[in-house]
Amino acid sequence: MARFLAEAGESVLVVDRGGIGAGASGRNGGFLFRQPAPWIAELLDEAIGWYRALEDEGPVPVDLCPWPMLLLAVEEAELAHARAYAAAVGGEEVDLREHSWLADDLAGGFLVEGGVTLDAMGATTAAAEAARRGGALFLLGCEGKRILVAGGRVSGLVADEGVIRCGRVVVATGPRLRFLLRTAGADLPVSSSRGWLLETGRVDPPPPYAIEQAAWPEQAEMAPLSLDPTLGEVAASAVNEPSLVSLLLGGRPAGHCLIGTSLARSLLEEPEGPGTVRRLAERAVRVAPHLAAVPVVASWSGRRAMTPDGLPVVGRVGDIEGLDVLGGLSSIGMLTAPGLARRLAEGDSGPFAAERLA
Ligand SMILES: Cc1cc2nc3c(=O)[nH]c(=O)nc-3n(C[C@H](O)[C@H](O)[C@H](O)COP(=O)(O)OP(=O)(O)OC[C@H]3O[C@@H](n4cnc5c(N)ncnc54)[C@H](O)[C@@H]3O)c2cc1C
């Protein structure tokens, strides 16, 4: 976003309480795959072109690799959904018995071309470098505390470093989006869900495909699973309810695999427990039994920002001049961010405008 705004002639200062890629952007799976929703397909094509251009520009590698995606029905109950999903994205049914990498009792699979993987931290760092080249400045390790408003327009940001005078603030604080916005008297219902990833040692032979289990919800279905819980639900421990776990597995150029992913409502910034990691490992070994011997070298989780309808939110918020957002990127922010940032810089929010959430 910083790059798009700088190239549009804005004077840009990026303020982040962490470093580059401190949130989910630097720690996600880096899977960019086709999905049935047309708006996602459109943003995917734009994103792949944008990351490819970023890689060509250098100097930071993005590790952009085309990977066919195997949409996998592990159990019979997942087959109908997998078939419908595959039909919507042009997937072709494959005979899984020909693939010795996989267990021999899986229900069915469909091959979907056109997806890529990338290194999330590489891509985020490369984007930051491109923004610097475009003239953007960075203030890292500096938390924004309050947005200042005077006479109905943004007049600055109070941050760790003091008061930064400016006429426009774009709030892009991921799962913390609504909290900074509220200091300007605006509010958006952006909630937070947590997801986990595992990283393995070398896997030899590497997986022939990136594998996505057909148990992961589509965007519109995901939104209700991520709504903020009520006080009554918290009292009944609903926030600790088991997360949804659906296998997402892909090889990386260095020979290891990333294994995800999960979804659970999240109120705390700290991880809520290790149970999901065990369930992810279980799922991976169910799909490819030989993985049982592969070492797991790390596991971590991150938080995704969710809107109630599953669509991102882009552009002006409320009546305050100079107050914008780019957020609600859910589980597909690497895929959607480039196209949404371009729209923000062009002042064209389209279907992602904030008014729909008011
Ligand atoms: C486990 C997991 C796997 C995922 N896998 C994929 C995937 O394979 N493909 C895909 O497309 N997407 C994936 N995603 C989703 C993707 O990572 C997110 O949608 C995307 O990173 C969101 O970007 P963001 O910039 O909105 O938020 P973030 O990346 O969370 O960035 C928000 C930033 O705001 C900063 N911040 C917060 N509050 C303040 C403040 N008050 N002042 C200053 N700075 C502040 C934080 O430090 C952080 O750097 C995954 C997410 C998770 C959690």
Shape: globular
Strand order of the largest sheet: 5-6-4-14-15-16-13-17
**Roughly how many Å is the radius of gyration?**
21 Å
Structural class: alpha+beta
Q: Which H/E pattern describes the elements?
A: HEEHEEHEEEHEEEEEHEEHHEEHEEEH
Number of DSSP E strands: 19
Largest sheet: 8 strands, mixed
- When the domains are counted, the total is 2
Unreliable stretches (pLDDT < 50, length at least 5) are none
β-sheet strand percentage: 25-35%
Total helices: the number is: 9
CATH class of the largest domain: Alpha Beta
| First-residue to last-residue Cα separation | 24 Å
Q: Find the CATH topology of the largest domain.
A: FAD/NAD(P)-binding domain
Description:
This protein has 358 residues and is an alpha+beta fold. It folds into two domains: 2-64 and 118-189 and 309-346, FAD/NAD(P)-binding domain (3-Layer(bba) Sandwich), CATH 3.50.50.60; 69-113 and 191-304, D-Amino Acid Oxidase, Chain A, domain 2. It contains nine helices and 19 strands. An eight-stranded mixed sheet has the order 5-6-4-14-15-16-13-17, with helices on both faces. The protein has a three-stranded antiparallel sheet with strand order 2-7-3, with no helix packed on it. α2 (38-57) packs across α9. The protein is globular. The two termini are 24 Å apart. Flavin-adenine dinucleotide (FAD) is lined by residues 15-18, 22-25, 28-32, 143-144, 172-174, 176, 180, 195, 197, 260-261, 302-305, 327, 329-335.
